[in-house]
Specification:
The protein is α/β, with parallel strands linked by helices and 420 residues long. The protein folds into 2 domains: 37 residues; 364 residues, Metallo-dependent phosphatases (Purple Acid Phosphatase, chain A, domain 2), CATH 3.60.21.10. It contains 9 helices and 22 strands. The strands form 4 sheets. Strands 3, 4, 7, 8, 17, 18, 19, 20, 21 and 22 form a 10-stranded mixed sheet that branches. It has an 8-stranded mixed sheet with strand order 1-2-10-11-13-14-16-15. It is globular and about 50 Å long. The termini are far apart.
Length: 420
Amino acid sequence: MKKKNILLLCAVCVLSLCLFAVLIVYAFIRQEEKDTENPGNQQQGQEDPLPSGAGQGEEPSPTGGSEPSATLAPTLTPTPPPTASPAPTPVSDLTYQIPHDSSDPIILGFAGDVNLDEAYYPVKKYDAEGQDINKCFSADLLQEMQSADVMMLNNEFAYSNRGTKEADKSFTFRAKPERVEILEKMGVDIVSLANNHAMDYGPDALMDTFDTLEEASISYIGAGKDVDRAKAPVYYKVGDKTIAYVAASHVIFAMDWYASDTSPGMIGTYDPTMLVESIKEAKANSDYVVVFVHWGVERASHPEKYQRNLAKIYVNAGADAVIGCHPHVMQGIEFYQGKPIAYSLGNYWFNASTKESGMLKLYLKPDGKVDVQLLPAMNKDTRTYLLTDEAEKKNYYSFIEGLSYDVKIDGDGFLTPAKE
């Protein structure tokens, strides 16, 4: 065979191998995302039945395991309406001003996954209770949310009446735009849209989601009309301090879900480079940086090795706190370089399972110190409530300590590194 033909054959073989390798990597990523989306037989257990008339929804997590006792929700004495924090005033598209007494700590509140799909548990509960948010959350928990200077959670669905359902997805979530009133009643200021459901109904529904949140004066991070907006930090000027928020997802269903220069989408963090750039930008323009990330394996109570590695990368880049979600169960908490990392805050208002939940509070004190507190919340009968019984609180905190890494939790839920 002529030398020229041999070289041509070699070139064809090399190109074929490269193409095969690309296809294998793409298939692996798609399968990993689908495995995380639909865990299937990863765990066995009694599942909640779907609500009557439900379409598709997230597979409910099984009950059982090492949960604190929660047979009865505490009976609460009705309390006066909470005093809400002043409403943020837009300074620009990505900056909000909140008046604040500089002698008081700034309180940042965080919760996990919320699902307001029309055919799923929370909205059915909300409608059945006459759209009374007080029947869906305990009064004391509502007061905590509404009184935080900035309250944040994961918005795991789209607000829209438009769009085409993703054909290859087992579970797809979409809410009517008017359902955003639920977040307003909860006192939510900012949400993450970097997750595996915000684009369930395509780019049209995602764009409607942006419009809906903006009209409700709720800011969003991790997604945008293009990549520049999706990766941009959002800032809250609280008194004389500036708090920056950025978000990304390690669980993205398809390649066309990523934001580009010309199309809407979200930010990923398989490769953390872009998120690290956003963190550095946020650090240069703020006093405190929060990273909200969608990651991990559903129903897994412990973070994957990559979660712990990424969290350290984020802190090294300038993050002052890392807050996680997606597993639909609580995961542990860790301090790295003195910065809190909450690997998963579980479901906040997502399905009908009886599971631990929680609201994380960060107190940014005038002296520069930061206190970290976890409020012990539970999900039961599609209602989220604070535990008030001392024995149940003790069991809850013991459970969280057992999931965490060298962390102590006192009786009021304040966390400190165990080695201090």
